[in-house]
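Changelog-adjacent note: as of this version, every example in the card shows the full chain rather than a window. The one below runs 180 residues end to end.
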Amino acid sequence: MKSQSPEALLLVDGYNVIGAWHELKTTRDRHGLEMARDELIEVLINYASHNCYRTKVVFDAHYQQTPSQEEEHTQFVSAYYTAFSETADTYIEKACAALRHDYNTPRRVIVVTSDQAQRHTVVGYGAEWMSSLKLQSAVAAANRRSQDHRKRQRHQRRGQLLNSLDPKTQQILRQLRHGL
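Full-length structure tokens:
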């Protein structure tokens, strides 16, 4: 992770992303909506920590007669479930309008949805827009960078054991290696 303060706030229309990503649609169709939500949240936890984004994934109440609720998953990632008659679009638009003048919010607010009407609305409030498929590409790129970084670290550590030993022990090991 880059730092402890978030560089941006990422507002994600959860069901829009689930409907756009083939893997999440497959999970939804085979194992149910709850499993697809959990999978998306897990992906967003990794992505948010890699990019140092505070992230809120928003899910519609989905015809449930329930009040709104928010679940904290990590320090920077939460899931928000709207109240019965509120859509994720409405919640995200209200949040963008409110955050416009909130100086405690990161300067960048990025809304992830492929809904074109919502895109125009949130951009009008000063938020950035990212399509659901663009997020999928960004997640894949972040995963590749993370894997490349881990490979480089493993490669660099290979020759470090000898270098981490004191000079006397290094000398003894050299003598053993040469049969002295």
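Structural remarks: The mean pLDDT is 86.
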